Structure formats: C-alpha cells, structure tokens
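Hi support team,

I submitted a single chain yesterday and got back a structure, but I'm not sure I'm reading the token output correctly. Could someone confirm the output below corresponds to the sequence I sent? I've pasted both exactly as they appear in my results page.

Thanks,
R.
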Amino acid sequence: MRMNYDFEYYCGCDITVPTKPAKPFLRGKHTSVEALAYAEALVEYERELLGYQEDKAFYGRELNSRREKFFALLATDYNISVRQLALTWEEAQCHASADDLETVYTLFDSLMTFIDRYNAQYVKIDNVQNYNKTC
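Hi R., thanks for writing in. Yes, this is the structure output for that exact sequence:
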C-alpha cells in the first residue's frame, strides 16, 4: 500500500535552519576603546538575537505545520483515525533504524500492511466460525 510522498518537503529540507549569532567577548584586561567596541558589538548581537528568535519561531511553526499536513494525509490515505495513526507511527519510530521521516514511514507502511493482513485473516476466521455455528 506504499504511497509516494514528498519527504523532503515534509521534513523542511527547503527551509533554512536559523543560525544563532555569536555573542561578543570582552577579555579581562581591556582598554576603553575595546570596551566601547564591545558595547557596540553587544547592541548589534542583541538585535541579531531577536531576529534569530523570530526566525527560529517561524522555522518551528512551518515544520510543525508540514508535519501536521503529512500526518493528516497519512490518516486519510490509510483510512485510519488520528489515534490509530499516532499509535502505529510511534511503534514504527521506536523500531526504525534512523529517525528520518522516510525511514519511519517505510516501517509504518509495513506495520499497516501487517495490520491489514491480520484484520483480513481475522475476518475470514470469524466468518468461518459464524458459518459453522449456523450449520
């Protein structure tokens, strides 16, 4: 039942991960000129840090949004509830050899195939038992 998904999109590979700015350093023995340069660098650092925090928040929101879309798509494609998806996905994640989305999905798909086969077998057994009871 394996589906084709754009894993790079859902992983956010196209989104630049924000880089935290380096905090300026003032050595112990310094001149007033160095202290002034440090103060100016510190003001610039604090401005860059605010930009970094905004970028980091955007990155997190965008990544979460893409994951939510991916999981909603999975639930629809596999015709399962969000609860069933979460349970099966967590099991796949625990047993995956890597934590990347495509690797976990491959194991998830295998688990879903196993569950489908089990359910189909159970239905057949249940129907045979019901048939035997009526005969």
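A quick pointer for reading it: The chain has two domains: 1-77, 81-135. Let us know if anything else looks off.

Best,
Support desk
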